[in-house]
Every structure is written in structure tokens, then in C-alpha cells.
Specification:
This protein is of the alpha/beta class and about 475 residues long. It contains 14 helices and 18 strands.
């Protein structure tokens, strides 16, 4: 049976449409299999349907990395449709053979068979990396190039000079505090010392060049958008809220997707935030990455918080490895998400009171954002999320030897503060927390009003040393 991802088919008759899986393919015919009753039905319908009956085949073109549809008219292009003699599984399935006389079908069939056989030979004889190199130009010779520290790896990834980074740092409106190490660092240090430590720990820019960036940002993003276990404890959160208040900083609480078992904890946190807001006569901004969370807030705390749609719900994805399947940056920048639609933005504002949307610096154009777009925009840099697991692949690898052997975790000890998944330098990606992130520090902000937030997926430098934390 030919894999459905590279060759699919549909039968279209007067009354309905049916997907088929092809078994054999030649320039003169192809066969597919259906349940016995369905096979007799469609064989008869295709023979009788005349101009109304078509078979549509979608060929995957390995070189172009795209699909091409060949439409076969059952009257003009199909010579014969016949049920094949049953050999096995008698009474359950039947094979249908379709004899074809069509030049386009013949050309694409011969090309497909040649490319598919080449793929099979590579699969049998070569490693995965060598096969990818032969098929899509993947540079397998670079797979063994790793940096021994995160700082060196970022230097290998960087796309912009330090002076441009300095200008960008001066414009930052907020910073991410996304793990317990940063919560403790903020609570234990004076504000200016903490801001200095944050930028020094980033490894993103030379310390001497970024001293000008020691200004205090307006927003602190507290919490992790991907793992709920990294959200601060209640006492810690309350202390951070009070400290941001005294430091004249706007706290923004970031929530990860929530499991059913954590609803009680979430309700306690929301109650704490609601009481704090009422006490201070302010509205705190919450970033939500779960529609259930949005519904809970709408039901129990309407109009008490400023809601922002998180990166997991704005649904703009990019994978650094997509460069090796012939997708260039120009094509990527034209991709749209549902947020580009005005009616969707109206829906967010009307039903959930969402007034802002979070995006990441993945190179995708945010053309929807204008002064009259009815919604604000937050841009996180320099990392962008590529994939997130519901449970923790890091713990699965550490304790069970395989990323795939994931289980729910009730008592997390934050091993992600010490360990991370490392990838070859040329891929510009890293595995932190329960997610995989790509790196892109080349950023253009062409419109006023975009809130720029920096986050470096790291921990504070130990003892304020210049060596950083080894991952």
C-alpha cells in the first residue's frame, strides 16, 4: 500500500465522495481496496456516472515539495473499471482495478515511481541524516557541531551586530520572569541590581555595550506560558506583586495550559489576584494560553482583569527545519493566522474581553496590527516556540530514558533549571522546559504601539559570575 501522505485519491460521483488508498500504481492502471459492499457500489457508479464521475489523484512531488492533482474523467480517461478476483480476506474487502489512458497521468506516475523508489533505496541504505541530505539538502555534516555553553551557541546563532542589539534593548518594554530562579532573584535583590543581573545573564549582548539598557522596563511577565509547574507559589506570587507595586512596575501574570486536576489551584490564584487588584484599585493583565481558563475568568471574574491571548492560542508556528523543505522566508512571512480576520478580533473582545494578542519573533508578518485594529500586540523575542508537550519530555528522558515515555507530574522539582535538550548549532533551536524553541534575533518593528518583551529561557548567573549556568 502506497503511503497516503505522498499519494492520495478521491472518487467523486453524482451523489458523494470517497477517499481511497492506492495499492498499486503503473502508467497504465492503478488499484485500490474497499470493503466489499463499497467496492461493488463505487465500481458500478463510476461505470455509469458518465461525465459526473471523476477520480482525483494527488501526487507528491519530491523535488518541488508540493502536490499535483490529476483529475481522471471516468468517460474520457478511464478505459476499464473492474473488481479483482479475491485472494485473501474473502467476504471483507475487494480490490478495484482502474485502467487509464491519459498522458498527464502517465507522466506523473512515471515521475512519482522513480522518486518513490529513490526514497526507498535511501531509506534502506542510508542513515536518516544522509537520506535527508539527498532529498532536501539537509547539511548532515554539521550535525556534530555543538557549542559547549549557551552563550557560545547564541553567538553562533546571532544575525545582528551588537550595536543593533543595543538599540533593541533600549526599546524593550518588558522582560520575562519565567522560572523559580528568576522569582527568587527578583525578591532578593534591589531593582537596579536585578535588572543588571537579568541582562548580564542573558548572554545576548556584551555587558559593556548593553549598560545603557539598564533602564527599568514597564512590565514584568511573571509565569511560564508552557508549564504550569513553573508558575510561582502563592506566597511567592503575593510577594512579587507587592514588590512590583513598590517598584512602580506593571505585573503581567502568564498562565500555561491547565489540566483538570489543577483547577483548584488556578481558582485560588485567581482569587488572590482579584483580591490584590481590588485592594490596589487596579486591573492586572493576565496572559492566557487555554480556552478553559478564558471561560473560567469570564464566568467568575468578568471585567476584573485585562486579558491577553497567549502565544499558544495565537497559533503562529515556525520550525527552523522548514528551511530544508523548500519553504523560503518570503513564503513564510505571508502566512496568516485567525487573528488577521477582523471578525475574530471582534469575537475575542466581545466574548472574552481580550484586548491584546501575544506573538513571538518567528519572522511572520503581523500586518493586521494598525491603530484601529481594536486589539493590542505584544511581541516576544528572541525565541519562538516550535513545539510543546502536554507532559514533560525532559523528565521522561532523565528518569525513563526516552522522550516519548512521558507521564503526568504532580510534584515537579524543576530539573529544567539544570538540564536542557541541545541541538546542533546550525538548527538555531533549543529544548527548554517542556518545549522546543527556535532563535531569531533579527527583528523589525515598523509600527508604533507594539509592546516588545525580552525573554532568554535562562536562569540567573550563579553568584553573579560571568560564566553563566551550564545547561
Amino acid at each position: 500500500m502506497i503511503p497516503f501522505a505522498i499519494l492520495s485519491g478521491k472518487i467523486k460521483t453524482k451523489t458523494d465522495e470517497k477517499e481511497i488508498r492506492l495499492l498499486e500504481l503503473s502508467p497504465d492502471y492503478f488499484t485500490f481496496r474497499l470493503l466489499k459492499e463499497q467496492a461493488k457500489k463505487y465500481a458500478q457508479q463510476l461505470s455509469d456516472a458518465g461525465q459526473q464521475g471523476n477520480v482525483v489523484l494527488s501526487f507528491f512531488q519530491f523535488q518541488k515539495r508540493s502536490y499535483h492533482e490529476v483529475i481522471l474523467n471516468c468517460t474520457r480517461d478511464v478505459v476499464k473499471i473492474a473488481l479483482m478476483p479475491q485472494k485473501q480476506m474473502e467476504g471483507l474487502v475487494c480490490e478495484i482495478r482502474v485502467d487509464v489512458k491519459n498522458e498527464e497521468y502517465r507522466i506523473y506516475t512515471e515521475c512519482f515511481n522513480k522518486e518513490y523508489m529513490n526514497y526507498i533505496y535511501l531509506k534502506l541504505d542510508e542513515t536518516e541524516a544522509d537520506m535527508s541530505k539527498a532529498l532536501v539538502g539537509y547539511p548532515s555534516e554539521k550535525e556534530q557541531t555543538y557549542s559547549d555553553t549557551l552563550k557560545k551557541q547564541r553567538a553562533a546563532w546571532t544575525q545582528v551586530p551588537n550595536e543593533a542589539k543595543k538599540s533593541l534593548a533600549e526599546r524593550v518594554d518588558g522582560i520575562e520572569l519565567d522560572n523559580p530562579a528568576w522569582y527568587q532573584a527578583y525578591l532578593s535583590k534591589p531593582l537596579k541590581d536585578f535588572i543588571s543581573l537579568y541582562w548580564e545573564s542573558s548572554g545576548w549582548i556584551d555587558i559593556d555595550l548593553c549598560k545603557i539598557a539598564w533602564r527599568v522596563p514597564k512590565y514584568f511577565y511573571i509565569g511560564n506560558a508552557y508549564c504550569f509547574h513553573l508558575f510561582p507559589k502563592k506566597t511567592q506570587l503575593e510577594a512579587m506583586l507587592e514588590k512590583t507595586w513598590s517598584d512602580h512596575i506593571f505585573p503581567v501574570c502568564v498562565f500555561a495550559p491547565v489540566e483538570e486536576k489543577d483547577l483548584i489551584k488556578i481558582e485560588e490564584i485567581l482569587k488572590l489576584l482579584s483580591d490584590w487588584c481590588q485592594n490596589k484599585c487596579v486591573k492586572t493583565e493576565l496572559v492566557i494560553n487555554d480556552w478553559g481558563m478564558a471561560g473560567l475568568i469570564r464566568k467568575k471574574y468578568p471585567n476584573q482583569f485585562l486579558l491577553t491571548l497567549g502565544c499558544l492560542l495565537s497559533k503562529q508556528r515556525r520550525d527552523t527545519r522548514m528551511n530544508y523543505v523548500n519553504r523560503n522566508d518570503n513564503e513564510l512571512s505571508k502566512e496568516k493566522s485567525q487573528v488577521d480576520a477582523p471578525f475574530y478580533r471582534q469575537y475575542l473582545a466581545k466574548h472574552f474581553n481580550i484586548t491584546r494578542v501575544s506573538f513571538q519573533n518567528s519572522g511572520i508578518d503581523q500586518s493586521f496590527f494598525t491603530p484601529d485594529s481594536m486589539i493590542g500586540m505584544t511581541l516576544h523575542f528572541p525565541y519562538f516556540q516550535m513545539n510543546t508537550s502536554g507532559w514533560c519530555p525532559l523528565l521522561a528522558m532523565l528518569y525513563r530514558g526516552s522522550r516519548g515515555r512521558q507521564k503526568a507530574v504532580d510534584d515537579c522539582h524543576c530539573e529544567c533549571m539544570t538540564y536542557a535538550f541541545e541541538y546542533p548549532d546550525f538548527l538555531c533551536m533549543t529544548g527548554r522546559y517542556n518545549s522546543i524553541f527556535g532563535y531569531n534575533d533579527s527583528i523589525r518593528i515598523e509600527k508604533e504601539g507594539v509592546r516588545l518583551v525580552a525573554g532568554f529561557l535562562n536562569a540567573p548567573l550563579k553568584n553573579d559570575s560571568a560564566k553563566g549556568t551550564k545547561l
